Amino acid sequence: MKIAIVSSTFPGSRPGGVPTYVEGLATHLAHPATPLVLALGDAFSPNEVSLGPVEGFRYRAPIVWLRLFLALIRFRPDVIEVHNAPVGLPLFLFCRPRYFFHGPAVLEAKVEGASPWRLKVAGAIEAFVVRRSQRIVFASKTFRDLFRQLYPAVSPDRLRVRYPRMVFPSAQPLADKGRHFVCVRRLVARTGVDLLIEAFGKAVAARLLPPDITLRIVGQGPERTALESLAAMQPGAERIIFEGRVSLERRDELFATAIAQVVPTRELEGFGLVVLEAGVLGCPSLVTPVGALPEVIGLLDGYGLVADREDIPAALGRLAGAEAAGDRAKLAELVRRRFGARC
User: Fold this and answer.
1) C-alpha to C-alpha distance for 128 and 92, rounded to whole angstroms
2) Is the pTM of this model over 0.70?
3) Which H or E element spans position 273?
4) Are 320 and 342 a contacting pair, CB within 8 Å?
5) Which of 1, 78, 117, 190 has its CA 20 to 30 A from that of 265?
6) Phi and psi (nearest 5°) for 42?
7) Which CATH class is domain 2-161?
8) Residue 343: what pLDDT?
9) Quick one: pLDDT at residue 245?
10) What is the pLDDT of residue 113?
11) Are 28 and 163 in contact (CB under 8 A)?
């Protein structure tokens, strides 16, 4: 069977999120099927086709769509699965692909402060894609239930939950727990990094953390300047370190030696792949009870913690103290067994 997967970008262009999910899916399907990934950015393998550069899609959309059609005509897939509605939009005019619902477009646009015009466009595109989809797939039961609230008229028979399969680094000896927490997030309001910075400051002020414990924030985004200013006002400001965008090797080093990773999402978390990326290196996650994050911790047999925003300072203190965060080797093995892609 030939499966065409239309994504937003490749992991090398935009790591995390949809590209990471698609990479794992394509790898997992490679034995029983022949997958082809079509996306923006640089293609690096024979089963990838670049539709053009990442920048300027809104101005180059007709060219991208033409390349998409030409690639599909050459490939002649049995199944088409679209993971990005704007990139795959014209396909829904001519056939009924599967659509992977990675998030509610209108709600996400509202969180990002989009204009009323953009909200209307996002809503119209999503409604059209939903109506024309042969099947709608979700990364979590949580987002499937959210979708049913947004689109109650859609038949449940068209809905499927498919948990991620991911490409993990080769198994290696796990590092000892170090003296830092790590947060790997895009620095936007939705991801709640400001909540973590304030919580860390409160934990320091309340002396819940030993004096050598640091918080390392990995990632870039439009909120970085504001977050750095917020961090500078906190007790223990010198212990909050912004790493910026780092290599995968440096990210994995931080995961492997962290006390825990913190995922302080404020709104709309469809799964939380970063929990798996940390877990496979033995690093448990402290998450807020938002979206599918509690569901993911449950899938990991409770390795990790779920805490409301006001409880994050105390949770940091517990994780840094005498209480064990869980068996790191068992967590790593569990993540590989349940979420690893067949390679």
Assistant:
1) 8
2) yes
3) helix 273-279
4) no
5) 117
6) -95, 125
7) alpha beta
8) 67
9) 92
10) 78
11) no
How does residue 326 score in pLDDT terms, banded at 50, 70 and 90?
low
Q: Is 221 left (phi over 0), alpha (psi -120 to 50) or beta?
A: left
Say how many C-beta atoms besides its own lie within 10 A of residue 215's C-beta.
Answer: 26
**Across the chain, where does the E strand assignment appear?**
2-9, 34-40, 48-50, 79-82, 98-100, 135-138, 159-161, 180-184, 214-218, 240-244, 260-263, 285-287, 305-306
How is domain 180-339 classified at the CATH fold level? Answer: Rossmann fold (3.40.50)
How far apart CA 236 and CA 266 sit, in angstroms, is 24
For residue range 86-118, what is the model confidence (pLDDT) as tens digits? 999 999 999 999 999 998 988 888 877 778 888
* Torsions phi, psi for 125 (to 5 deg): -65, -45
Between CA 22 and CA 34 the distance in angstroms is 14
pLDDT tens sequence across 138-177: 999 999 999 999 999 999 999 999 999 999 988 777 777 7
pLDDT in tens, 204-223: 999 999 999 999 999 999 99
135 vs 156: CA distance, rounded Å:
10
Domain boundaries in the chain? 2-161, 180-339
Q: For the chain, report the end-to-end CA distance as a whole number of angstroms.
A: 18
Residue 240 token pair: 């909050």
**Does this chain's domain 2-161 share its CATH topology with 180-339?**
yes
Spatial contact of 135 and 101, defined as CB atoms under 8 Å apart: no
Residue 234 amino acid letter: Q
